């Protein structure tokens, strides 16, 4: 079974500064996907960024980027130029792609979450 | 395009009762997944339905069940409610995954907040 660990229950950052959220995972699979989701106080889960394990290039979405270290099983999220609207709970999630994507389905395994506070 | 809708949004039940929650996916989405979110256990996968068939199931007791209809709408049922079932229940829908690399985003609904007293 796969596990996802977020060791930082809370983080804070000053507006316009950069913050990095950590995530490690454990799996014996070689084919999978990793995601960062954001959950604001409204509780609506929003996809921030995703990474395919077979891609070596780190994913980037505007101010959000990841540092994917497959051998170390590490997947951190960097938020640049932090904005007040970035304040939320952030979840790291794992999705299997084995034996194939259709069979493995859409099941996500989530980490415990990191509560991000952005200070003005 | 309308998002994922979940009804009801809030629910209060008594121990021992049963409850049914509903999820309407985004039009065209055939995969529906359910998650339970609690402060103590975090986000846990309940089950996934695809084309009216359960494709995956999490580690929950048999009191938790679900189904999917031909229009892809899904319901989950919890029988003999326990205090520990109090949680936010999230539903997510997505297009089916058919090709490598074409992993489709899961869209989450606003959730149903269930309180068991």
Can you describe what's shown?
The complex is a heterodimer of chains A (120) and B (117). Chain A has 120 residues and is mostly beta strands. Chain A has one helix spanning 101-104; strands at 3-5, 10-14, 19-21, 24-26, 32-39, 46-52, 60-61, 64-69, 74-79, 88-96, 109-110, 114-119. In chain A, a hairpin with a 4-residue loop joins strand 8 and strand 9 (74-79). Chain A is globular. Chain B is globular, with a radius of gyration of 14 Å. Chain B is an all-beta fold and 117 residues long. The model of chain B has no long low-confidence stretch (mean pLDDT 92). In chain B, strands 2, 4, 5, 6, 9, 10 and 11 form a 7-stranded mixed β-sheet that branches. In chain B, strands 1-3-8-7 form a 4-stranded antiparallel β-sheet, with no helix packed on it. Chain B is built from no helices and 11 strands. The chains are: A mainly beta (120), B mainly beta (117). Chains A and B meet through strand 6 and strand 11 of A and strand 4, strand 5 and strand 9 of B.
